[in-house]
Structures are given as structure tokens and as C-alpha cells.
Amino acid sequence: MWHLPGSDVDLVADHKKLLIYTDGGSRGNPGIAGSGTVVYSTEGETLAEIAYVVGKKATNNVAEYHGMLRGLEAARDLGARELEIRMDSKLVVEQMSGRWKIKHPDMQALALKARDLIKSFDQVTFTWVPRAKNKVADHLSNVAMDAAADGHAPGIVDDGQSAGPSAESLSTPPLSPESSSETSAATPATSAAPVDQASVGSPGHWTGASSPPTRLVLLRHGQTAMSAAKQYSGRSNPALSEIGMAQARAAATALAEGERIDAIVTSPLTRARQTAEEAGRTLGLEVEVLEGLTELDFGMWEGKTFEQAHELDSQLHEEWIGNPTITPPGGEAPQALHKRVRTVRRELVERYPGKTVLVVAHVMPIKSLVRQAIDSGPHVLSRMFLELASISVVEFFPGQARVSSCLRSFNDTAHLKDI
């Protein structure tokens, strides 16, 4: 039987319809992992709080699955017949609702366990909620990760340790299942969700870092009419084309199927904002605009094709291609862009230690962030090529690490193969 946090009284299994909030996290992804689960009656009574140590090396997604499993187990033991599970993991909600495939073997095995448990109920509904509405479960997952860091073996953290702030104190009062306005899908007890790709690991073992890095997932905006025409597009402000919108949607889906994203920031220019907003809708996150991520000002070359810019001053243009320290006529010095983007990076690392931030921007700001990650000079800028809507990943480690930063992946366009 499950117990109220801090109570020795067994719960009476007479709750036929229950509401569960659950979350999971990993410090290092993969790294120390834990999940948190809260079980409510439809009247809002807290029936159980569960902090569960997943292990020393697991991903966010695996931890989220464990939180969901602990909720199913608790509801079964309470004799529930109907159940709504609310999570801020778009990935698990979509996979368990049968809309997304599950490719990763660890999650496939966990999904099979979940389907077996679902057979105990008449109906199970999975609902996505914003992270701000999942604070109690998030707190419990951090309790579990703290316990894991202290040496707690995989399993439930005993009640004295897991008890924490109540739902009321964390401003996340549960709503009845009927009143939820978030996206949801019912999973009958007899249904089987199809069985994602693994989250990217962390190289902390060779950097010497004792804390997880800040990971920046770099997404270039989708196609515009100017990019399709191969024109220099810096401070020009075209919107995404139809293809560009499709690219943004494909990127958003790929991001939702991968690692957990904690925040989204974007350039203020329309093409980047549209791309970021598509990701925000899919991931359930707000989008923050950062002026420092604006594309380079190409000056007199703005709106020109490569050939047209070359005709204006072939010698200068040729020198600029091989030497990005040269400033386009009437435009912005690449070093000035690098300086402002470096400021953005430092602010993000300070604000989001150990978190993953999606950065939606343009060719030159993304190249600048990659240059910072590999600690190189400006000559590397002309030796990188970034596709539209491509994804790259860089990491920045705490100060005590032997290696302060690294490039994890570059110019990934696998999600665009059907466009």
C-alpha cells in the first residue's frame, strides 16, 4: 500500500478516479536521475507523494517514464478505475498516446511495463501541462536526484525524505480531469502505444567537471524567399516561406523527441521568431527574444546574391570570404557580432547552469557560438556550412573543468529528409 507523506496510516483503496502529476530529471543527461510523482483525488486531496531514485546514469526521458510508472503503480494499489496522468514531457505524452514511435530500447521496455499496468484500468488519459503547473512533481524529482547523489540506491526515497512543499505552497493546485484545458489523449486499457532516439550523453567524465554543463541546442531558422534566392539576409526581415514553416515544424518535432529542453531564446528577426515559436508550441515553452542573437549586418551586400556582391568589389568580397575579420562595406564587423554573441552565451550559462537551452538564430551567431565552443579564432567561420533549419549542439562546463566547452554535433538535418 502507498502512504501519505510522513503518515503511518494506509490509504483506503476506494478512489475510483485519480489525477497524477509526474516528472523526471537527469543531472548530466545521462547522469544521476530521479522522478517525482503526486497522486490526487479528483477533489484535490493529496493521496501520495513519491520520490524515486532511477539510478546513477539515466536520461531525462527514462526518468520521466519511471515517474509515470510510479503513478500507474500507485493508482493501481489505490483501486482506481480511471486515471489522468499529467506531465510536462511532450515526448512521453505523445508516445504513450500512440502518436509518436518509441525507438530507444530503454524506453521501449518501460513503455511495455506501462502498457501492462494500463490493463488494470478502464481508461488512462495522458495530458501535457506546462512546466509551471508541475512544480510539486518537479520538486520530488529533485529530492530523488539529491538522494541519488548521496548514495541512495534505485528505489523509492522513504517518506521522511521525500515529503516537501505541498501543492498549495508551490501554487500548482490540481484541477479535476474534466476541467483540464491542456492537450490530452485517452489510452484505453487494451490499447498498445507503438514502441525514440536516445538523448545525447554528457562528456563530463573526460572534462573533469563535477557539475553538468549548460547545453545550447542551436537551431538555424527555416527557409525564406531571400534564402531560397541565395541572397545575403542580415538585418532584412523576411518571414518564413511555406517550406520554411514545414522545416520549423519538422525541427520542433525532432527536438521534442530528443533531449529535454528547459528554455527557448531567439533572435528578434521574424524568421527566427517564427521558427522559435513553432518549437515553443510543440515543447510547451515560452520564447524569450534576445537582441544579441540578431544576424550580422551585411551593409551594401544586403539583399545581393553572392555574384552580385562580388561584382560590387570583387577583391574585397574575395578577401572577406577567406578572412571574416574584414567588415562588409557599410555593415557590421564580424568581431563585433562575436562580442555580442559571447555576451549572450555568458548570460545563458549563468542563468541556466546544468540546463539545456534552445537557441534559435542565424548563420553568423550560430557559427560564433560554435567558435566559442571549440575555442578557435575567426578563421574557422568561413570553414563552416550551416543548412537551413539545421541543429547543432554545444556545451559549456563549470569553471573547474579541465575542458571548458565542446562541440557535440553540427549541422544535423536528418529531420528534414521528408521536406
UniProtKB/TrEMBL annotation:
Pfam families: His_Phos_1 (PF00300), RVT_3 (PF13456). SMART domains: PGAM. The active site is at residues 221, 295. Residues 165-194 have a biased composition (Low complexity). CDD domains: HP_PGM_like, RNase_HI_like. One of its GO terms (cellular component) is cytoplasm. Gene3D superfamilies: Phosphoglycerate mutase-like, Ribonuclease H-like superfamily/Ribonuclease H. Residues 14-154 form the RNase H type-1 domain. Residues 151-213 are annotated as: Disordered. Substrate binds at residue 271. Signal peptide: none annotated. One of its GO terms (molecular function) is nucleic acid binding. This is Bifunctional RNase H/acid phosphatase. The lineage of its organism: Bacteria, Bacillati, Actinomycetota, Actinomycetes, Mycobacteriales.
